[in-house]
Amino acid sequence: MRDPLNPRLPSQSWPRLAWAFAACLVALPCMAATTCTTSATSVAFGVYNSLSGTPNNTTGSVSVRCQMVGSFSDRVDYTVELSTGSSGSYVNRTLRSGTNPLNYNLYVDTTLTQVWGTDAGSTSARTGRIDLRWWSPTMQNDLTIYGSIPAAQYNVVPGIYSDTIVVTVTY
User: Fold this and answer.
1) pTM for the full model?
2) Which domains does the chain have, with CATH numbers?
3) pLDDT band at 23 (very low <50, low <70, confident <90, very high)
4) CA–CA separation, 143 vs 140, rounded Å?
């Protein structure tokens, strides 16, 4: 018999309560959400000297940052692709000052052998993975873009040259 002034449950009720609690946990809908953002820094070449015998090399970056809410772990696989820019070709991307061209390219590697593009033809895209855990729910991967303007482009007209590259990240 239970005493109304003592709210403790009899000992045989605890296993039933534990199973009921576990069943409730399993029945709850998953409320986890992971959001990702992308940012990029420019590949700024500075001054190009057409009489120099060395290429003008520099770097920029693309950052992929993901944050998980309401879960114990999540994994985000992603692919980062770069467009051709104004040239319409990965063979030689083109910086422009008005109608004046200056050839350059963007690469995934420090040796400047793999053109960063879409993984089609002779180009490469960058892939990656972010593993999120409850103790580290926010992670960021920084990917370096290696840029190069080839040496000895003697017909370059002085001016301010630029190009626009579209960065596409697929999760």
Assistant:
1) 0.80
2) 33-170 (2.60.40.1090)
3) very low
4) 10
